[in-house]
Every structure is written in structure tokens, then in C-alpha cells.
Specification:
The chain has 107 residues and is mainly alpha-helical. It has one domain. It starts with a helix and ends with a helix.
Length: 107
């Protein structure tokens, strides 16, 4: 089985029961990245993602499709984390410039 066939099989056996927990889990984990809430969202989100992957595997188990699915989930979380780091860096730079300008006005 080729990679393209595994990719097609990955999405052909998805049902709403498998997609819903994965999407909600990703939303909860990304929310936890931006607003810390004592890891509650991370635990619930990871559990929902695992549940969605299990539901998808029950429809048709294929190792290649499972690895593609896990890679897509990891890529989405990595991109969200990189965006968060970029926003924090811009916010820090803005705050430092604002503090420098505020100090020069006071003097």
C-alpha cells in the first residue's frame, strides 16, 4: 500500500464520531496554550484526541493512515505553538519599546 492510498483511506473512513473528538480536543489544547488553566484543557483535549483516533481505527485499522493522522495532529499543534511564540515575542518587543518611550518622557 502506497502513501497516497493510505492518505485516501485515512479520510474515507472518517465519521462524525471520529472527527468531533479530534477537533474539540485540538481546540482545547490550543486554548490551553494561550490561556493557562492548570492543564485541565490539555488532559481533556489529549483524551478526546486519543478517543477520536481510536474511533477512527475501529472503522478501518491501517498503520500508515494512523501515522499520517498522528502526524497531522502533531503538525497542527506545532504550528499553533509557533504562532503563540511569535505573538509573545511581538508583545514583549512592543512592551519593551513602550517602557523605553515612557521612561524617556518622564525624564
Amino acid at each position: 500500500m502506497g502513501l497516497a492510498q493510505a492518505f485516501v483511506e485515512l479520510f474515507s473512513y472518517f465519521s462524525l464520531v471520529a472527527i468531533f473528538p479530534i477537533v474539540i480536543g485540538l481546540v482545547l489544547m490550543i486554548t490551553e496554550m494561550y490561556r493557562y488553566s492548570r492543564r485541565v484543557f490539555t488532559i481533556v483535549g489529549a483524551s478526546l484526541i486519543a478517543l477520536g483516533v481510536i474511533f477512527r481505527s475501529l472503522a478501518s485499522f491501517n498503520v500508515a493512515a494512523l501515522l499520517i493522522l498522528l502526524s497531522l495532529i502533531a503538525t497542527i499543534l506545532l504550528v499553533a505553538h509557533l504562532i503563540k511564540l511569535r505573538v509573545q515575542k511581538q508583545e514583549w518587543l512592543y512592551q519593551s519599546i513602550r517602557n523605553m518611550v515612557g521612561k524617556t518622557k518622564e525624564e
